[in-house]
Amino acid sequence: MAKAEPKETYREIDIIDLKVAFGKFYALKGASFFANKREFLGVIGASGAGKTTVLRVLTGQLKPTDGQAFVGGYDVTKKSKLISLLVGYVPQLEHLSLYYDFNALQNAQFFGRMFGLRSKEIEERARNVLTILGFDEELITKRIDRLSGGERKRVSICLGMIHNPPVLLLDEPTTGLDAHLRHETLNYLKELNYELGTTMVIISHDLEIVDYCTRVVLLEEGEVSQFGTPEELISTLPGKGESIRVVLHTMTQDMIKRIESLPGVEYTAAAGRNAMKLFIDDPSEQLLPIIHRLNEMKVPFEEVSLVEADFFDYFQVKPWKQHPREIGGTAS
Ligand SMILES: Nc1ncnc2c1ncn2[C@@H]1O[C@H](COP(=O)(O)OP(=O)(O)O)[C@@H](O)[C@H]1O
Ligand SMILES: [Mg+2]
Asked: How far is the CA of 126 from the centre of ligand 1 (A)?
């Protein structure tokens, strides 16, 4: 490892103007983004956006047509052996990689051997990771086909971590799980990230992962449409992270129109039953004028207050380049 020449970077993942073509079709059209060590990076996009293609480049399964990708400072196309040690991979369809009639520890043995690890090392490592993932002795020794969907996903995560990689790539780890299990799985990943310092790259078509991410990249048809920390993205909204919430007695189309036309209001977002958030510059200054104006317009309201903007607001109001509502539809 010491002999290779690492690129001067503190970035654990660095993707620079990455292009991947299949024939004439470009699945990635020049994407750039990064994650620092120990970060939790969410790669979010609708189906076909190019998310899996990014992961295939990072694991060395696919050569970029143009641009570069670095893991731990190493060019993935030049250091493929090393890269396979630096990254762990959790595929979307774990049933293709798990042996169902063996338990988690036995599965770990198959996987660990591919990395040339000794049996005792593998067992120690698997027990350590599975314990962080909430497995007790009973679950550790239970056949995979008797585990629940969420538990199988955790075994699959353990296999990706078996060789102690500094980076873990996960392809839609929460897809197909119900809401409770999605959050549980993300919490366990957060725990691994915290306990072992693993840099996480998590693909999803679901905005709810944003709450767990330190950085987010949005892919749309092979291009990066947004990239930043959740706070950075939210602070690009008028109000810089604050908004005015208006709760009405009843909300009619006519009232919505009138509220949208209030002076200074750049965007509005639904904010629960009979409520809207208004995005406006200097919202704290605008609070009283807005109340005054609503009274003048005879719009009956229950409450007008200053509230924080969150990521769901961001996606409601931020104009999308192509398919405004395709992503985020499943998040609520
Ligand atoms: N091996 C391939 N040959 C041709 N087209 C492909 C191949 N792999 C992916 N694509 C196309 O590239 C686009 C991006 O695919 P993918 O990265 O799998 O999307 P996502 O994971 O975001 O759903 C899709 O339009 C897909 O059909
Ligand atoms: Mg995919």
From this structure: 33
Residue 18's Cβ-side half-sphere holds a number of Cα atoms within 13 Å equal to 32
Angle at 208 between CA 207 and CA 213, to 5 degrees: 90
- Closest-lying ligand to the alpha carbon of 47? 1
> What is the spatial distance between Cα 86 and Cα 68, in angstroms, rounded to a whole number?
17
Ligand 1 pocket, Cβ-based, cut-off 6 angstroms: 22, 27, 45, 47-53
Mutate to test the pocket of ligand 1, among 28, 29, 47, 53 (most ligand atoms within 8 A of CB): 53
pTM: 0.84
Return d(Cα 7, Cα 11) in angstroms, integer: 9
Place of tokens 């969410």: 42
Are 34 and 11 a contacting pair, CB within 8 Å? yes
Q: How far is the CA of 171 from the centre of ligand 2 (A)?
A: 7
Q: Computed from CA positions of residues 303, 304, 305, 310, in that sequence, does the dihedral angle turn out positive or negative?
A: positive
What tens digit of pLDDT does each residue of 231-240 get?
A: 888 888 889 8
Please give the single-letter amino acid code of residue 28.
L
pLDDT tens profile 238-288? 898 899 999 998 888 888 899 999 999 988 888 888 999 999 999 999 999
CA distance 159 to 97: 9
Atom of ligand 1 nearest to the CA of 203: 21
Domains, the chain? 11-228 (3.40.50.300), 238-313 (3.30.70.980)
